[in-house]
Amino acid sequence: MSTNKLQKMNIFIKMFIHLSFLIYALNVLQQVIGHLHIPPLPESYWSWEWNVQLIPFYFVGDLISQYHYSQYHSGNSWFFWNAVKLSFYNMLLLLPLGVYLSIYKVNSLKRATAIIFLVSFLLEIVQLVLSYSGVIFARTFNVDDLILNTVGGVLGYFVLEQIKLFYRSFHFNAQNVDG
């Protein structure tokens, strides 16, 4: 391929990555916020007691209690599988962000973790403020969401970094064998 075609291809790939990131970011925002209510819902609809969960790893106890409940009901509890599904979705939500951070060459796992955690925290704050104001359906500020979102994002970053390392070492070894 000529140099001009390679440059055009690189520009296209970069634009595609930026556009896919924008679409991903808008999708995350829609998943987190949901539907807007205009006019806002009444204030009595939201409460600090029910909409803020500050106990870390509460979801683990929830999974265990739902599992025990399901054992008494033929092992097929909707509540247990819903808790599993929600935990998985929380991990999945920011997994692509970790991949994008690796693509955008964030150089350290520590820095990527901090960025992913801050994005997750910002999403939780947006949920809290918009829920409290009644603009969106009551959502919870949940420390477990912060943990699971961060774990998912770090997993995405780590996996892509490992793939890049494997590719570089494979490519380097292939050049040494050929050369």
Automatic annotation (TrEMBL):
Q: Which residues cross the membrane?
A: 12-33, 86-103, 115-140, 146-167
Q: What is this protein called?
A: VanZ family protein
Q: Identify the InterPro entries for this entry.
A: Teicoplanin_resist-assoc, VanZ-like
Q: Which organism is it from?
A: Alkalihalophilus lindianensis
Locate the VanZ-like domain: which residues? 23-160
Query: Which residues, by range, are in coiled-coil regions?
Result: none
Whether Calcium counts among this entry's keywords is no
Keyword tags = Membrane, Transmembrane, Transmembrane helix
